[in-house]
Amino acid sequence: MEWVLAEALLSQSRDPRALLGALCQGEASAERVETLRFLLQRLEDEEARGSGGAGALPEAAREVAAGYLVPLLRSLRRRPEGGPDPSLQPRHRRRVLRAAGAALHSCVRLAGRPQLAAALAEEALRDLLAGWRAPGAEAAVEVLAAVGPCLRPRDDGPLLERVAGAAVALALGGGGDGDEAGPAEDAAALVAGRLLPVLVQCGGAALWAVWGGLAAPGVSPGSGRVEEKLLVLSALAEKLLPEPGGDRARGAREAGPDARRCWRFWRTVQAGLGQADALTRKRARYLLQRAVEVSAELGADCTCGPQEGNGPSLFWWSEKKKDELLKFWENYILIMETLEGNQIHVIKPVLPKVNNLFEYAVSEENGCWLFHSSWHMCIYKRMFESENKILTKEGVIHFLELYETKILPFSPEFSEFIIGPLMDALSESSLYSRSPGQPIGSCSPLGLKLQKFLVTYISLLPEEIKSSFLLKFIRKMTSRHWCAVPILFLSKALANVPRYKALGIDGLLALRDVIHCTMITHQILLRGAAQCYLLQTAMNLLDVEKVSLSDVSTFLMSLRQEESLGRGTSLWTELCDWLRVNESYFKPSPTCSSIGLHKTSLNAYVKSLVQEYVKSSAWENEVSTVLQNFVMSTTESISEFILRRLTMNELNSVSDLDRCHLYLMVLTELINLHLKVGWKRGNPIWRVISLLKNASIQHLQEMDSGQEPTLGSQIQRVVSMAALAMVCEAIDQKPELQLDSLHAGPLESFLSSLQLNQTLQKPHAEEQSSYAHPSECSSVLEESSSSQGWGKIVAQYIHDQWVCLSFLLKKYHTLIPTTGSEILEPFLPSVQMPIRTLQSALEALTVLSSDQVLPVFHCLKVLVPKLLTSSESLCIESFDMAWKIISSLSNTQLIFWPNLKAFVQFVFDNKVLTIAAKIKGQAYFKIKEIMYKIIEMSAIKTGVFNTLISYCCQSWIVSASNVSQGSLSSAKNYSELILEACIFGTVFRRDQRLVQDVQTFIENLGHDCAANIVMENTKREDHYVRICAIKFLCLLDGSNMSHKLFMEDLAIKLLDKDELVSKSKKRYYVNSLQHRVKNRVWQTLLVLFPRLDQNFLNGIIDRIFQAGFTNNQASIKYFIEWIIILILHKFPQFLPKFWDCFSYGEENLKTSICTFLAVLSHLDIITQNIPEKKLILKQALIVVLQWCFNHNFSVRLYALVALKKLWTVCKVLSVEEFDALTPVIESSLHQVESMHGAGNAKKNWQRIQEHFFFATFHPLEDYCLETIFYILPRLSGLIEDEWITIDKFTRFTDVPLDAGFQWYLSQTQLSKLKPGDWSQQDIGSNLVEADNQAEWTDVQKKIIPWNSRVPDLDLELLFQDRAARLGKSISRLIVVASLIDKPTNLGGLCRTCEVFGASVLVIGSLQCISDKQFQHLSVSAEQWLPLVEVKPPQLIDYLQQKKTEGYTIIGVEQTAKSLDLTQYCFPEKSLLLLGNEREGIPANLIQQLDVCVEIPQQGIIRSLNVHVSGALLIWEYTRQQLLSHGDNKP
Q1: Mean local confidence (pLDDT), 817-837
Q2: Which residues of 776-813 are buried (b: 16+ CB within 10 A; e: fewer)?
Q3: Closest Cα partner for 1187 from 1152, 1223, 1213, 1222?
Q4: Is residue 419 packed enough to be buried (19+ CB in 10 Å), middle (13-18) or exposed (0-12)?
Q5: Per-residue pLDDT averaged across 445-457, rounded?
Q6: Is 675 buried (19+), middle (13-18) or exposed (0-12) by CB count in 10 A?
Q7: How many CB atoms neighbour CB 691 within 10 A?
Q8: DSSP secondary structure code for residue 1422 in this structure
């Protein structure tokens, strides 16, 4: 078109000057400049043919260049984008630039003056160098690209080199980073795409200048400019790699550079292979493939010098090994290209080729690397950084398995890769999940492989490398916020490394930093286990000669005693042995040296620490004497020393409070020690306690005299109160220490008169310093100057007050008045004036921090039951304030649990519950409100509900046993608590389930992990809530009226809950929350059944039968059938109501009749206790025979299996009355047994007979907790979260075992069955099995959730009738698009199916038709096309059903056995299955296909859009059907 227009212009005027002049006038629009460009190009073509005007044309071209184009380009360079000229928008501006540049190129060639080109290039270069970050750089680049080819390589060589250098610098980002580089991005891309290719065409100096800039040492492959560099390299690949057909006789410089010989080139390629940008990776693969092709074509040896060391070259070529090299690089490129697919089922078959790469890469002769190992790392890095976590996990496991089958030579690249990308990948918690089929509590497969890999790899490392590698490895564990699971398995792997002296002080500090990192982990057991493994690592890898005992003790102090390093564990013993063995080898400690101890003895070091800690300026000599005679001294001397320190005003500074705490701890330990060996009243400890008590009371009374407080007096006041608190705690916990009778003594009288919550006045600085030792004066001032520091001291003082008061209230709780009236002259005010004390408690809750409110909670436990009737509002206020404190404790685990326990004990105290329920006031509803809040909190914090239900059940059991009639009046009023406990359990997210699995794994290690010994098994799993409730119910006595009423009330509430769940969602999926709740409801009803009598069952039997008619998952169906069998067996009087269930009408029953047919199959159990069975058997046979001829295949199978079992019973009884039925029954059974063919019908008849519920299950003998809570859920396909082993019932000792413990365990063969012994067949209306399962289980096996029935297909008939009435032709084609996600694709498919008359379109959710994108593409086609909802998990059932109806299942997928679309003949009844947009058709569904059809392709792209693919096949089907019916109409 351009040439035609140029010819037309030239035909109007043969004077180029006039024509060009006319075009150069007016506004410089894109159209005008483009017209000028193609006119100049036409003139240039004529000039080349010698037909142009030789004189006028060059001059005209010079005028156009100098007078129009150069000023135009200058103005564009100086005007920023979007500047003063609004007419030149960015898009038009680029058109003008491009056209002006091309026109300038033609002008320079027509002018024939090389000096013009050089001058223009100089000017543009100056502009480029002056402002390459400005938008005007784009215009300068266009000028250089236009005049560059016109420059003379020899005369203008220096200019070309300067232009090339500037161009490379701009293309690589201008040497700048950050936000400033942004404006130059367009210019950089323009340079790479236009200017540099032009320059390298000039060859010579320009080419070498470009290559020099690209290969310059200053441009590091890791500098973050990899994308830009690869852009340039790929654009110039033809010039930077040698040409296979080039003249080899030319000199090296004339031949051009060879990028293959430059290691920086290969490092850039490797960096590009691992980039996040797909286009960058594609460029890197292109360069690699191009280099390999060039090397193979040239046939000459080539070597790239190594970057460092004597290892193999990054790239090399040898003609002798051409075949091996080609094989290696072809496999390598194939793997990298396959990884771009990001689909595990496509990538997994290629992974074995990675092993082949290692075989090629290692020499068989000397075991050295032939190929640089960094190439292999690129593959793994790409896998590790994949968006698909499954692919990441496969890559990590594949890497960790490297050393299982082969021994690779050492490579620094490997070590760096392990510390870098591998550990980055290992930080992802989801990688450590269990494999399908692994039992709960098993070790993570990845964790095991990591452990084995690390041990093997470190053992193969050179000795001089091990220490540095381990140090880097440990430091990497501190370089980021690791989650609990990865840090645990990394620590475990390190702990298993064999003993080796690898770590010094740096390593020990790094391990300590890792321990600190674990402290952010919320799961205490996981962080405790990680600490144990890190301590084991230190003992295994520490070089004791490089660390001192001081260093080791600092490290040990970072371990928490309550989480990991506790006495009595094997780890403690191992640590002691390790210290004892190595104590003489440790480096001398600075502390020991400073006091003259030059030995590294452990005893000497500990002695120095104690001496340093307890020494005091006034008593240093005496303390030293005590220490020197410590071994020989008696308990009395120690206790006397402590007594003196606590009572003689020797502790008078803030720092002395720590010593006070230490002394009281020592005294407590001495008390415990004497209690173990036997307590005597004349014991010296008893005397010390008595003296300490009296002295403390005296101090506190003297200091209430009103004198101005000093620091020393206030500190002594705090010490005295702490001492009294210790005495009270000791007496409270050890009844043997009771010093006085119940009559109030001096201690009780003093404590009862305490001014609660009294604030200690802060002393003035002058007074503080006057009581301090001169050497401590400054420190004292500094210590107490902080208000916050003094506030903590005051809070501790108040805390100790409440500890004492708690002791007092517990001792004299019987003296607390229950009415609101005050005693006029109380002798124990705090006890006998409870309202005032309760008000003080509420005040204390507002003052004390959350870690100090525990004694206040203990006081509330005593006060609230006494005051709930008379001061209900005050008690409710205490509930609210206490709950506010509990709910605010988010992750402070060590504080939260004791506080929660104390809170539950006072709010849910049995007396409180009883009184609140009796008066039915606000407190009753407040308690229930808090109960539901606790249950709600349990969904976030596992174990909260456990604390509540355990305490309540224990208190109810005790109260019931203490009352002669076994009353459960309190529990009856709070039966909602038991109800919620019976159905409790959250559906964990994947990450939460992983943490639960790992915790179970740690617990299963038992004594092998010290954390299990140190930390009490808190039973905080969700299972223990249900276990507690179930064990409580098992203890109830059905003959006790209050127990009986409680259980009946609970049973009704359970049925209400089941109906509520069924109404909320009529159809639900397997393992959904609805499924789990219903499952738990029926499990609990089964537990209650033996204690329910006939009268009560008569009121609920209809509801139980009605539950059988609902659409239930398999496990629930089994429980309902089981409880119906048990009811009919125990109470045959309900049989008439059971027969009525078969008379509801076929439309109402549908497939739910299978539930009642399954019950009939156990009629032998039901009639076990009935003497006359004939009438019942006759009724059963008549009912079953009716259903044996039902149109539904699933119903027929259930009826036939019931008929077979019934007929067996009849034969045994030899009932003559049934002879008339014999021919019909025998014929039916013979027909089904002798079914011909190998179809699914025969298979499923065989399998339903082998089904555990019909073949093995015995409703009476299998009635036990193990079957209810473990065996049946396991066989029913429930997720492992719902399996509760019987071991958990026995381990949970908070609630005792009932007398009938023997019924906990299963004694039948049912417990030995495995889930793999049968296939779930009775979900929905289909009993079809996947064909050829044996063929594909070895290829790919996935757990298929048999979770819901196939959707009702009446909708198809409705639409077909509607279409027929409209005169629309309907084909027999079904299009299944359930795997497609995008509404646009579904909308387009809907329109295509409607146009070509498909019988039905199957989609994953009917909700998508309301999507605007769907409607925009479908243009109302959904109103005229049958749409059916089949969710992806239901597809196998749906496809198999359609197979039985005669449909051929056709998949649109590229597989090894797929047929060409052009060669395939579609059957009339065809079902077309379309794959997902990204993943295609899953492997498990491919096995269900009869045939795969692929669309022949000619291009490079591997696949079509799924809508396009579907449309092509739909049309081809329609075309073939039109031809076959002779209908040639368009």
Answers
A1: 69
A2: beeebeebbeeeeebeebbbbbbbbbbbbbbbbbebbe
A3: 1152
A4: middle
A5: 92
A6: middle
A7: 15
A8: G
Tokens of 363: 């020499």
Cβ distance 234 to 286 under 8 Å? Answer: yes
- The tokens for 1453 are 């997928």
Amino acid (1-letter code) at residue 197 = P
End-to-end Cα spacing for the chain: 37
Confidence band (pLDDT; 50, 70, 90) for 1227?
Answer: confident
Tracing tokens 């540049």 back to the chain, one arrives at 101
Q: What is the mean pLDDT of the chain?
A: 78
Are the beta carbons of 524 and 1015 closer than 8 angstroms? yes
pLDDT in tens, 1442-1499: 988 889 999 988 877 788 898 899 999 999 999 988 788 888 888 889 999 988 887 7
Residue of 774, 777, 684, 671 lying closest to 728 (CA atoms): 671
Counting residues of the chain whose pLDDT is more than 70, the rounded percentage is 78
**Which pLDDT score is estimated for 1124?**
94
User: Per the confidence metrics, is the pTM higher than 0.90?
Assistant: no
Read off the tokens for 560: 């928490």
Burial class (CB in 10 A: 0-12, 13-18, 19+), 103: buried
Burial letters 1294-1304, b for 16+ CB under 10 A, else e: bbeeeeeeeeb
List, in order, residues 6 or more apart from 565 with CB less than 8 Å away.
Answer: 531, 532, 535, 556, 559, 571, 572, 575, 1010, 1014
For residues 425 and 422, give the distance between their C-alpha atoms in angstroms, rounded to a whole number.
5
Mean pLDDT over 152-172 rounds to 77
Please give the Cα distance from 443 to 1153 (Å, whole number).
Answer: 44
Contact 649, 657 (CB under 8 A): no
Nearest to 1294 by CA among 943, 947, 931: 947
> Which long-range contacts (C-beta less than 8 Å, at least 24 apart) are formed by 602-606?
602/549, 605/549, 605/550, 605/553
Q: Where are the beta strands (DSSP E) in 249-361?
A: 302-303, 316-317
How many C-beta atoms lie closer than 10 Å to residue 1214's C-beta? 7
- Residues 234, 281 contacting (CB under 8 angstroms): no
Q: Is the pLDDT of residue 1432 over 60?
A: yes
Measure the CA–CA gap between 1029 and 1034, rounded to whole angstroms.
9
Q: Binning pLDDT at 50, 70 and 90, where does residue 1162 land?
A: very high
Structure tokens belonging to residue 608: 């120095």
The alpha-carbon radius of gyration of the chain (Å, integer) is 44
> In 10 A of CB 680, how many CB atoms?
11
Euclidean distance between CA atoms 727 and 61, whole angstroms: 110
The reported pLDDT for the residue numbered 972 is 85
Cα 667 to Cα 73, 444, 658, 1355, distances in angstroms: 93, 46, 14, 82
Kindly give the pairing relationship between strand 1459-1460 and strand 1427-1429.
unpaired
Q: How far apart are CA 1312 and CA 1314, in angstroms?
A: 7
Query: Quick one: angle between helices 944-962 and 1023-1034, nearest 10?
Result: 10
DSSP string, 1171-1216: S--HHHHHHHHHHHHHHTT-S-HHHHHHHHHHHHHHHHHHHHHT-G
Rounded to an integer, the average pLDDT of 1174-1181 is 86
Whole-Å CA distances, 1377 to 326, 388, 917, 1466, 1483? 43, 23, 58, 19, 16
- Residues 1121-1153 have pLDDT tens digits of 999 999 999 999 999 999 888 887 655 566 688
Three-class DSSP category at 1234: coil
Beta-bridge mates of residue 1473: 1376, 1451
Q: What one-letter code names the amino acid at 912?
A: V
Cα 286 to Cα 316, 392, 584, distances in angstroms = 18, 24, 63
Contact 1514, 1375 (CB under 8 A): yes
